[in-house]
Write a structure and sequence with these properties.
The protein is mostly beta strands. 6% of the residues lie in helices and 46% in strands. The strands form 7 sheets. A 5-stranded mixed beta sheet has the order 2-21-20-19-18, with no helix packed on it. A 5-stranded mixed beta sheet has the order 3-27-26-25-24, with no helix packed on it. It starts with a helix and ends with a strand.
């Protein structure tokens, strides 16, 4: 009888759920469909990474001045110049003090400073260009406080405050914080509702998203991972608009238990929506999947919106890519793929040809 009760408990615990936060998710948003976008044909230009030896799969890219920062799957950091020649590298030598476990995010602070976030260690590693010795150097790591654990996307506000999304905090969709000695949390943007019979971590996973700050409109854009929803907030946290589409699906997942703890589990019907987002001076760019989880770690589809949420154009790529980043200085959209040829996995699109 005891075993029967335990089996019944586990079955109930793994019941599939669909959009428990539906009321909050879908309230006053604009809906759009795939047919509202015009198709844009734009040629990809491959970038040879011959100066970056023994390159594995790329995990993150960003831009600082004329230089490109690359983090690879071995948690090594490379900085290459506009001729695609390596000018600095970190984490490549056994004697190197930089020991990263899961580096996935690069945060640009200024034209000579950036940070790399190690998700597993919950540490930010600062890098700075030292003009006296004319080289990039790594500075003392910043161990984040417990309330800043589980951060998965970042950007920088004009006053050097950082914003991030988290899979651990249920106080808001976006966290504003500083990384000085006090590490003050300056507030939260976007409400996450309490869902009955569900712990906060599971709810945070349901509301998983990525964020960017657009300095042209002073807007924080938020794109959800488990539902095709995009939100826009001003710096005070006031919602400007929400747009839902192109497939209009809700988060689908199931509740499981591990070591007596409730956990979030994907199902065969779980879909991925927005994988990444970026913005240039005119438009918002989103890498969109819409596929079931097993086929949705990357995508061939980029949807482009105006800054007020109107559908603009759609780009269909030849091959799946894993992320997108904007190089504003050169008006380019960058992406990266995986494959046998590790030296030719990075490429860009010339946005002036849209």
């Amino acid at each position: 009888m005891k075993n029967l009760f335990l089996l019944l408990f586990l079955v109930i615990g793994c019941k599939e759920k669909s959009g428990e936060g539906e009321i909050e998710f879908y309230n006053g948003e604009k809906q759009f469909t795939n047919n509202q976008f015009s198709i844009s044909s734009i040629k990809a230009v491959n970038i040879p990474l011959y100066s970056v030896t023994d390159t594995t799969d790329i995990r993150a890219i960003d831009f600082i001045g004329d230089n490109t920062i690359i983090v690879d799957a071995k948690n090594r950091i490379f900085i290459i110049n506009k001729q695609y020649r390596k000018i600095a590298e970190f984490g490549t030598l056994a004697s190197d003090s930089l020991k990263l476990i899961s580096a996935r995010n690069i945060i640009i602070k200024s034209q000579n400073e950036f940070l790399v976030h190690d998700l597993t260690k919950n540490i930010l590693h600062p890098f700075k260009y030292d003009r006296e010795i004319n080289k990039w150097v790594v500075e003392k790591p910043i161990e984040l406080i417990k309330d800043l654990h589980g951060l998965i996307s970042f950007d920088t506000l004009p006053n050097s405050t950082l914003i991030a999304t988290s899979v651990n905090s249920d106080k808001g969709k976006v966290i504003k914080f500083t990384i000085d000695s006090s590490q003050k949390i300056g507030g939260f943007i976007g409400k996450i509702p309490e869902i009955k019979k569900q712990i906060s971590f599971v709810t945070c996973m349901e509301y998983r998203s990525s964020c960017i700050y657009d300095n042209n409109t002073n807007t924080i854009f938020l794109a959800h991972f488990y539902t095709d929803l995009i939100e826009a907030y001003d710096l005070k946290g006031v919602l400007k608009f929400k747009i839902h589409g192109p497939d209009n699906f809700k988060p689908v997942y199931k509740l499981g238990y591990q070591h007596g703890q409730q956990i979030f589990l994907n199902t065969k019907k779980t879909k991925t929506a927005y994988i990444a987002l970026a913005a240039d001076n005119k438009y918002l760019y989103t890498l969109y999947s819409g596929n079931e989880m097993k086929n949705s770690k990357a995508s061939k589809t980029i949807y482009i919106f105006t800054k007020d949420g109107q559908p603009f154009k759609k780009i269909e790529l030849v091959q799946d890519i894993y992320n997108i980043k904007i190089d504003k200085m050169n008006n380019r959209l960058y992406g990266f793929k995986t494959g046998e040829n590790k030296l030719e996995q990075l490429f860009y699109f010339d946005l002036s040809k849209l």
